[in-house]
Amino acid sequence: MTIDRHNLFIKFLKLNSPFFIGTEYKDAYDFLVDCHELLHKMDTVARFGVEFVTYQFRGDTKMWWQSHVECRPVKALLMIWATFSSFFMKKYIPSTLRDRRRDEFLKRPNLCFIRICDSTFLQSESVDHYFVKELRPDLQIQAYRWLFQ
């Protein structure tokens, strides 16, 4: 671990980063959101997000992650946050809860389209016409511009 990475990791831990054991769906969702917010504040989501968050796994979740890492090809690229969060959610958060949380997120009154595109909860494959139709009218225009640019 480089000095920069080490210092950032210590800072991440001092911010009371949560642990995840893998028992409750709500805990999984909150864990992912809380970690993403901390990493975003530190501007480290892209560089060290997956690494820092997976250090916070305990119990069965830690074993699940270790088996995933061990099964990956030696020369596999490092996992980016969007891939990791999708992988984690598929494992620990039922699709019905993911859909409900996504819908709650999209219906918030102070939401802007840029925030939607950067969201942990939405991956690029989710951005289709069904998704756009579910947005508030003011966001639909921005979404269509973004999709067809």
Written overview of the protein:
This protein is an all-alpha fold. It has 2 domains: 1-92, no CATH class; 94-149, no CATH class. The protein is 66% helix and 0% strand. It has 9 helices and no strands. The chain has helices spanning 3-14, 25-42, 45-54, 59-71, 81-92, 95-106, 113-118, 129-133, 137-147. The termini are far apart. Residues 120-127 have low confidence and may be disordered.
Q: How many structural domains does the protein architecture include?
A: 2
Measured on Cα atoms, how large is the radius of gyration? 17 Å
Biggest sheet, in brief? Answer: none
Strand-residue proportion: under 5%
Tell me the number of strands.
0
Q: Give the uncertain stretches in residue-range form.
A: 120-127
Quickly give the structural class. mainly alpha
Assembly status: single chain
Q: Given the C-alpha coordinates, what overall shape results?
A: globular
Write down the secondary-structure element order: HHHHHHHHH
The level of helicity is 55-70%
Organism: Solanum pinnatisectum (tansyleaf nightshade)
Protein name: Retrotransposon gag domain-containing protein
InterPro entries: Retrotrans_gag_dom
Domain Retrotransposon gag: 52-106
